[in-house]
Structure to design on (260 residues):
């Protein structure tokens, strides 16, 4: 089960070209949705203006230091999510982030490179597909039921839904139904295709709702982290508030966020 390509097994029912076209359409939707989000919220204009303001107000930062800041941003803020002070939230985020990367990468490789059973799929890709989907589910459900601020700190119901939850729920639905589909298909269960189409539905919502969800947020976070480090390096803080001297004075409720 963990070494077989689930997409190759349904190639007799759904042509590989159809699956490949679907993935291309999803990539286009993400690109268009992100561009729309940038233009609508004027995010690029905001970061560019802040960086110019910070550069004009602070000391000059050399090219070598800028490269160092970029590397630190990539390693600390992006690769290890160092901006999270809450370790549980950080672990859940990393599970979801790397799980999604593994899941999406393995899907693309299996659909484009090994679309049928005529060509043997290296076992690493199905295993990475299963691992990635499982990581998304572990990190996502842990966050949803136990870590969210309105649930853990405010006692809110985990079943209360908001527009901001669209990204997390569609991602969880895509990974959950993918696991269900793979499991049912390995057992030749009649409900396998039902799980498959639910997986497709959730995936379509995930990639098609970029302008209204937090999907584009993952592209803005590196820019914001880089700007923060650059401002600190040249002696300015741009629009960032001063750090709190006594964070213990604040209650848990004051830190309520819904960021994942």
């Amino acid at each position: 089960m963990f070494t077989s390509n689930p997409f190759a097994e349904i190639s007799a029912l759904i042509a590989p070209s159809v699956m490949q076209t679907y993935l291309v359409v999803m990539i286009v939707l993400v690109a268009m949705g992100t561009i729309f989000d940038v233009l609508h919220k004027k995010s690029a204009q905001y970061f560019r203006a802040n960086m110019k303001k910070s550069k004009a107000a602070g000391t000059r930062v050399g090219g070598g230091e800028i490269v160092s800041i970029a590397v630190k941003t990539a390693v600390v803020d992006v690769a290890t999510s160092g901006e999270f002070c809450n370790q549980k939230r950080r672990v859940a985020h990393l599970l979801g982030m790397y799980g999604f990367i593994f899941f999406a990468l393995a899907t693309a490789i299996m659909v484009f490179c090994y679309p049928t059973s005529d060509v043997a799929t290296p076992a690493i890709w199905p295993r990475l597909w299963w691992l990635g989907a499982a990581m998304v589910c572990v990190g996502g459900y842990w966050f949803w039921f136990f870590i969210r601020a309105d649930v853990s700190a405010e006692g809110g119901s985990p079943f209360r839904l908001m527009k901001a939850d669209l990204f997390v729920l569609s991602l969880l639905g895509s990974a959950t139904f993918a696991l269900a589909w793979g499991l049912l298909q390995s057992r030749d269960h009649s409900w396998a295709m039902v799980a498959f189409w639910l997986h497709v539905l959730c995936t379509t919502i995930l990639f098609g709702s970029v302008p209204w969800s937090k999907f584009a947020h993952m592209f803005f976070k590196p820019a914001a982290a880089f700007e923060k480090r650059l401002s600190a390096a040249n002696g300015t803080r741009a629009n960032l508030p001063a750090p709190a001297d006594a964070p213990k004075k604040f209650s848990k409720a004051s830190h309520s966020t819904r960021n994942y």
Remarks:
- The longest helix spans residues 87-113.
- The mean pLDDT is 81.
- The CA atoms of residues 231 and 237 lie 5 Å apart.
